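Late entry, written up from scratch paper. The run itself happened at the end of the previous shift, but nothing got recorded in the book at the time, so transcribing now.
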Amino acid sequence: MKNVIKRVPCKLVCRWPSVNILSKNVIKRVPCKLVCRWPSVNILSKNVITMMLAIVAITGWAQTKTATVTGYSPALKDGTLVLAGVGGSGTVVDTVQAGRFAYTLPVEEFTESSLSFFGEGCPRSYTLIFLRPDVTVKVTGNDCLNPLWKVESPIPEQQTQNRLTEHCRDVLTERMQMDLGYPAITACGCSHNPGTIGHI
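Output as recorded:
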């Protein structure tokens, strides 16, 4: 059969059947000698080998493509949860240790991803990071205000996003300070506490 591995059974053939031989008035019994004419073998057709090679190749091509993000900030506490994801979803991907973290996300094409933290001193804000397959992005900062951190990436869209973030740095800083309950500096230079009404 084609495309099927067949087990061919060994066929035992008695080359010389057991016989009685009369020699010099003495009857002798000659034992039967069994010979395996076709030893048991595995037969592989060329089609089967070709099909197996094709499966191996397809498996290699089908491997999920990924992108990697690494980061560091001395202000992050050990045990802070790192949340990241694509398409608006986010899950815990790492835990900060000695201010460092790293994770890998499945990425089939150019896409947006988010990075945020859950821990002491971390705002409820996320960093927008653009990704594509086989790209490594480095994120660094000196505080816990991650949306303001430096994002090093070869992707042009990320570089544009970095310029926008820098342009809006004051507004973003105020927003995160209010989120954390810190007295924020408003545009007029007054200190404003979100827990009170008016200026202090």
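The first helix runs from residue 46 to 61.
(Scratch paper discarded after transcription.)
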